[in-house]
Design a protein that fits this description.
Layout (H helix, E strand, L loop, with lengths): L1 H8 L7 E6 L3 H4 L4 H21 L3 E6 L1 H4 L4 H4 L8 E4 L10 H7 L4 E7 L1 H14 L3 E10 L3 H13 L3 E3 L1 H8 L5 H10 L2
Parallel strand pairs: 1-2, 1-4, 2-3, 4-5, 5-6
Length: about 190
C-alpha cells in the first residue's frame, strides 16, 4: 500500500521525466469538439515547448496512421526532428515496436502522458506503464476523448489505479522548480 501512496505525493522531476505524445492524429482531431481540441493543443504545446527547453526525451505515437491520419500538424511542428514517432496497431504504446526498449533506455521512471483518447490509448498505456513500475502522470487538460463521459470515467479509473492526475501548469512548474532564473522566466513566458 505504501508504494501507491508514494505515487500520489510524487512531483514531476525534469531529470526523471519522459513526455509521451499519444495519437494526436488528424482523423481523431477532425471529430473532436473544437473547444476540447483547442485546450488539448494549447496545453500539449506548452508541455512540448518546455520539455524541449529542458532537454527532456519526447516520444510520439500514431495508431494505425493509414486510417487515423498522421500527427496533427500543429503538434508535429513543435516536436524536435529527433523525436521518435512510433507507429502502432495496439491501443497501448507498449505494443509499438521498440517503444518499451527505447523508454527503458532513457533510464527515466516518470512518464508524462498527453494525447488521445483518454479512455482508450491513454488509459491502456498508463496502466501498462504503472504495472511496469513507472510513475505515471496523466495531464488532464492535455488529454481528451470525443465524449466527455468517457473522459471523466477514464480519469476516475486511472486515479483509483494509482495514476497521478495533474494539469499542464503543475507539470511545468514542477519541472522548472530547480531551474535557473532565465529558464524559469522563459517557461513562464510561454503561459502568457
Amino acid at each position: 500500500m505504501q508504494a501507491h501512496a508514494e505515487h500520489y505525493t510524487s512531483l514531476c522531476e525534469a531529470g526523471n521525466s519522459v513526455l509521451l505524445v499519444i495519437d494526436i492524429q488528424t482523423e481523431l482531431t477532425a471529430i473532436t469538439p473544437l473547444k476540447v481540441l483547442a485546450r488539448l493543443q494549447r496545453n500539449t504545446s506548452l508541455l512540448i515547448r518546455t520539455a524541449v527547453s529542458l532537454g527532456l526525451p519526447i516520444f510520439a505515437t500514431e495508431r494505425s496512421p493509414e486510417r487515423l491520419g498522421r500527427i496533427e500538424p500543429e503538434v508535429h511542428k513543435l516536436l524536435p526532428e529527433t523525436t521518435p514517432v512510433y507507429q502502432k496497431t495496439s491501443f497501448t504504446c507498449m505494443g509499438a515496436k521498440n517503444f518499451a526498449e527505447d523508454l527503458t533506455a532513457t533510464k527515466r521512471k516518470q512518464a508524462i502522458l498527453v494525447g488521445m483518447e483518454a479512455h482508450v490509448c491513454i488509459l491502456q498505456t498508463a496502466l501498462d506503464l504503472h504495472k511496469r513500475g513507472y510513475i505515471v502522470f496523466v495531464v488532464a487538460d492535455s488529454v481528451c476523448s470525443r465524449q466527455r463521459e468517457n473522459y471523466e470515467i477514464a480519469l476516475r479509473r486511472l486515479a483509483r489505479a494509482g495514476i497521478i492526475i495533474c494539469d499542464a501548469e503543475s507539470v511545468l512548474f514542477e519541472w522548472i522548480r530547480g531551474a535557473d532564473e532565465e529558464l524559469s522566466l522563459q517557461v513562464q513566458g510561454l503561459l502568457r
